Amino acid sequence: MLELLTSKIYGAPAYMVVPFIALLVLYVVLVIRFILHMRGLNVSFTGKKKKIALLLGPRHAGKTRFFHLIRDGEHVDTVSSMKELTCRFIVHSKYNLDKFNAELTVVDYPGHERLRSRVVDFYSMTGTIVFFVDASDTPSFRKAAEFLYDIFANKKVNDQTPPIMVVCNKSDISGAASPQMVRDALEKELTQLKTTRSSLETEGDDDEQDLSQVPVGRDGAPFQFDVDAPCEISFVKCSVKDADIHDVVRFIQQH
User: Fold this and answer.
1) Beta 126-134 vs 164-169: how paired, if at all?
2) Range 52-201+211-254: architecture per CATH
3) 13, 29, 36, 101: most buried, per Cβ within 10 A?
4) Tens digit of pLDDT for each residue in 192-249?
5) Using CA of residue 10, residue 11, residue 17, residue 20, what is the dihedral sign?
6) Rounded-to-integer distance, Cα 43 and Cα 22, Å
7) Where are the domains of the chain?
8) 50 near 44, Cβ under 8 Å?
9) Are strands 126-134 and 104-108 parallel, antiparallel or unpaired?
């Protein structure tokens, strides 16, 4: 013991150096744990939440298959989920044609109508919205329009204006609607929804007005994406089945 106390390390007494080394090791361990914790919370070192790519749309439109394809590089059979799927990853090399090596945070949110009210919790941290539509299923356009209406009416979306890409998936199926046809159909549905939703709001109690909602579109005018959408919006043809997804991947990477 006496030798330990009297020995020297780099000219300094050992009893002074050893505790310093122990504290240094403890500090490094704590810093590493803090970094991993912040990454898990998706928080940058400026204290701000990093923006996410939010995958939305009605059920069976192809969101989850797209998620697994760009993350794992392979097609996966999926079922409707009741919980969102969140992951940080670099797009798989098979579909990362632009060699974009930064990690993305992607949230695949379930399309079930009963869960739609909870999606608003993600809007404050959303950098871009990728909205999937089954272009081969014309009757589903009504549900897609209802979902889009709720997005456009949300105050957080109007404040942050994340760019939105409407992905017209399943374009490989014969008879699938083109992006322009999907756009026209959604504008027609949104025009009808403006009328019905406005009537319901008028009949409601003014004292119970929802301050988290804003009016959609112009009074007395048909809905037009170029004029009435609160965000920059684009439409793209896509086939997750055939891995024709590059435009969607690039959109997420660039935003």
Assistant:
1) parallel
2) 3-Layer(aba) Sandwich (3.40)
3) 13
4) 999 988 766 655 555 555 677 899 999 999 999 999 999 999 999 999 999 999 999 9
5) negative
6) 29
7) 8-40, 52-201+211-254
8) yes
9) unpaired
